Amino acid sequence: MLPVLAITSGEPAGIGPELCAMLARKPWPARLVLIGDRELLAQRARLIGEAVTLVDYRADAVPPPGSLEVWHVPLGAPAQAGRLDATNAPYVLSTLDVAIDGCMRGEFAAMITAPVQKSIINEAGIPFTGHTEYLAERTATPRVVMMLAGEYGQPQRWLRVALATTHLALKDLPAAIIADELEAVLRILHTDLRDKFGLPAPRILVAGLNPHAGEGGHMGREEIDVIEPVLARLRAEGMQLIGPLPADTLFTPHQLVRGDAVLAMYHDQGLPVLKFATFGGGINVTLGLPIIRTSVDHGTALDLAGSGKADPGSLHAAIECALNMLSGSAPQA
């Protein structure tokens, strides 16, 4: 029996629908169920000249070889490539709800998400910070961790960067670095690296918050007062934690070979480096959920929508990662 994966098609004006259509280019060791408007997916495939057979998803039916299954969710209004419409914001969230609910009841083995446009969802009057926070709320998960990953270098290695905080203004960061939250993040990261990524004793490189990791308290005391005590406590339980390390030298080859993952204290501390190294083939994984969720590491690319020039590499990598996580043997660092 092939695993059944839900693929949400994302913002209808962006590249998500055509990336979904491109999945028909290769065979997959899974049933891929596209969650979105059937006619939108067909229309976008025609627009970019993609030959694809779309069939309605039925849990008890085996789809024809080479076809893509569709769970139809109707648009709120006709969608045009590259042109946002707040009317379709509820539609975008509905596609997520279908995938989440299907995963929670065991119909889908995992969900993979194409990019959404947070700004237009908020303009529609719907508070929305991002996929990560929405998934946590919908699954009643008190704490989740955002981790991005991708291959880099020659020979290729895997770089994994998790975040202690996610979509937070810089002015609010120091107050958010508190012991209980940091400990919870490290426990989730350690557990999922072990149980879902097949790393029996994961090594985690932990960044400091301040320049030069605080330089002994001369540029901030978060490392001394919060980060170091948490790391010491968890090391006593057997976790392999290295740090806090200065972020400006953490992402160098001689440091990265010491770890299986990096924990950055905030979004733009770790992700610019990762995206520079892996963009186009990187992925986003939400750790700590009761379900498996992976995603592309890029945005909606409205300027490319409908051109056929979008690169499906990140979506392919997200599907492959979900399949690896299902087997508990994701690629090593």
What attributes characterize this protein structure?
333 residues; alpha/beta; Isopropylmalate Dehydrogenase; 12 strands; 35% helix
Task: Describe what this molecule looks like in 3D.
- By secondary structure, the protein is an alpha/beta fold.
- It folds into two domains: 1-141 and 289-333, Isopropylmalate Dehydrogenase (3-Layer(aba) Sandwich); 145-288, Isopropylmalate Dehydrogenase (3-Layer(aba) Sandwich).
- The protein is built from twelve helices and twelve strands.
- It has helices spanning 16-22, 38-47, 89-104, 118-123, 131-138, 173-176, 179-195, 222-235, 247-250, 253-256, 267-278, 313-327; strands at residues 4-8, 31-36, 54-56, 68-72, 110-113, 145-152, 157-163, 203-207, 240-245, 261-264, 283-287, 293-296.
- The protein has a twelve-stranded mixed sheet with strand order 3-4-2-1-5-12-11-6-7-10-8-9, sandwiched between helices.
- The relative contact order is 0.17.
- The mean pLDDT is 94.
